[in-house]
Design goal:
Structural class: mainly beta
Distance between the termini: 40 Å
Helix content: under 10%
Number of helices: 0
Radius of gyration: 14 Å
Shape: globular
Number of strands: 11
Strand content: over 45%
């Protein structure tokens, strides 16, 4: 089965930076896109950023200019470089992947990002 594992979440001060990583393994095949959602307490899960097989990127308005998504060329992995972090960025960040053969979402278990002084 497809498995996604996130890493990098931790506590950081407002204005700080943090990088998240996500690796995919299993019966992946060809990946259509990968990216990140997040869910803060008492809020709905929301898209943060996504990147396609070809490198096209999508960002939520609230992270444009602050976050950068990227992926590797040689393996199925995606990264999220976060800068100028705000308290409202505090959330569990979930990695997702969608396959060419099966466009449903595959999810990681999440990594906690806490922005606090």
């Amino acid at each position: 089965q497809v498995q996604l594992v996130e890493s990098g979440g931790e506590m950081v001060q407002p204005g700080g930076s943090l990088a998240l990583s996500c690796s995919v393994s299993g019966s992946v095949g060809s990946i259509r896109s990968m990216g990140w959602y997040r869910q803060a307490p008492d809020k709905d899960r929301e898209l943060v950023a996504g990147i396609t097989h070809f490198g096209d990127t999508t960002y939520a308005d609230f992270v444009k200019g602050r976050f950068t998504i990227s992926k590797t060329h040689t393996k199925d992995a995606v990264y999220l470089q976060m800068t100028s972090l705000k308290a409202e960025d505090t959330a569990v960040y979930y990695c997702y992947a969608k396959l060419m053969s099966d466009d449903k979402f595959y999810w990681g278990r999440g990594t906690q990002v806490t922005v606090s002084s």
